[in-house]
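2 proteins. here.
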Amino acid sequence: MYLQKSGIIALVLAIVLAAAPFALADKDGVAYPEGFRTFTHVTTGIVTPGFIFNGVDLGSLVPGLHNIYANKKAMRSYYELAAGSTSTIFKDGAVIAFDLWQPGTLATGTGSFTFQQTRIAVAVMEKDRKKYAATGGWGFQVFDPATKTPQLNAAQQAECFACHSITPDTDFVFSKFSD
């Protein structure tokens, strides 16, 4: 009886563990990119309050320290863009992770040091031209940094694309690779 019970528990546990990666995807399939900080670091920027870009108040929407990471498929396209390509299209399977942090500052009498203090969110762009045809081939999602649960509904994901649609020459990607 004990062996039978432990076998059932092991089977249920195996099914739960096998399904776990899919539990962190939103209904459209954009998944939390586990291990994204092992992707290639593309660039870092800081958005401060009051920064308006193309009529959008990014200073209030996404203030803070921005670290951008890309998987290998995305990096191929970043390299093409850095080499001057004007027709680069990111390949299906490309993933770009936008790691947003509240900056902290350590000040001394001679200057200051800014650092990553508290993670605010992890935003993700995932390329799949068929699945996300309505949004330029990109799926968008923002994940809670503690629970890794998706935060955007379909309308909010469409708003992401509306902002990114001003950059069709770079396949709707704002960031540029900083070698």
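next one coming up
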Amino acid sequence: MTATMIKEFRLPDLGEGLTESEIVSWKVGVGDTVSLNQIIAEVETAKAVVELPSPFAGVITALHEQPGTVVEVGKPIVSFEVKDDAGNQTAAAAPAEVALPKREPNLVGYGAVVESTGRPVRRQRTLVQPTPLAEPAPLAEPVETRFANTSTAERPRSTPPVRKLAKDLGVDLESVPGSGPRGLITRDDVRNFVGGGDLPAAAQELAAQEVQPAPAQGEREVRTPIKGVRKFTAAAMVSSAFTAPHVTEFLTVDVTPAMELLARLKENKAFAGHKLTPLTLVARAVLIALRRNPGLNAKWDEANQEIVQFNYVNLGIAAATPRGLTVPNIKDADRLALVDLSTELAELTDTARAGKTSPADLSGGTISITNIGVFGIDAGTPILNPGEAAILAMGAVRKTPWEYQDQVALRQVMTLSLSFDHRLVDGEQGSRFLADVGALLADPGMALAMA
């Protein structure tokens, strides 16, 4: 008989010293057989939602934290029953703490070395994620006591987010059967209860839409905890606003030639299947202008009292997501041809809106662009992304009466707004960079002269 042992997986630091993460959902349940690096959970850090791979191959024996719970780094979140190759330990005599295996890079910046060459068999699953948790088999592991049954006189067992969801939907948790460990009520339990027709159609529609619930009748305020991406963004923006002396300059440009070029490129076979937008051309113009104005591709290193100028460009693109503003960046964007840049921009924005951006893609940016034009806004005063010297806001492209060849004509016009750190960039540098970007959009042929 093969000996087994219990191993705990503790929440790792998912990037740049983050101290906590929220469990968004489990992709596995107690009793499931998982393989090494199989995705077992989604967790939300202060920067993004990331997928958590399994560090072991084995059977899930316990999930120590429920969705909606904020967990400190280093705290156990899941236990596994794995083969004991040494043959000197069993599940009944499992140690309380087990060191994690050596890690190797993977999608979220860490992983585990394969412990065996065997191919675990995954139990057939029929339910959609997150899967209701099965009843765990009795183990001698002390952590099981945390799922002990509660008295029927107590409030139905659920997490605060689930109780809030139930309140918003008008659901009495006493009537909802729980599918989690020891009868824990999950979000899906509440939604399934609503979907079963036990509530009015309006409540069922609200549950299906997956939107921020409206306040209950009579409530004049809705309070939402400040956490995750929004909390991190708020702290970063406050720090940036009160640390770097911001200067913002504006330039309104006739971008008709650039829009005409964009239309021709969309018809070009070389760009077939690629998403081309005004952002694509603005990004390319920024990258070309940085070659003539490298001082904007830098950062102020306060700790070492140095100005660090980058010889590469990690181009950040501000993206509005359901969880708040994020600024993922394209690594070495200056080395990409226009067709490759368009591909990277499309993938970056799609991933950000899906909430799948990894912490690595949110770190290391050197200069950023924010496209406020998609919201119909003409200009603004963007706040610098921390650690960067400049950020460019591109406004909406509008047909406007404009002086053209000594006459007034209806032209396509855009306003550019450049904010920069005045410790690093003086007025002349900022103005020259902004003028170069504008010149490239007003006459794309200038790229031949500037490249």
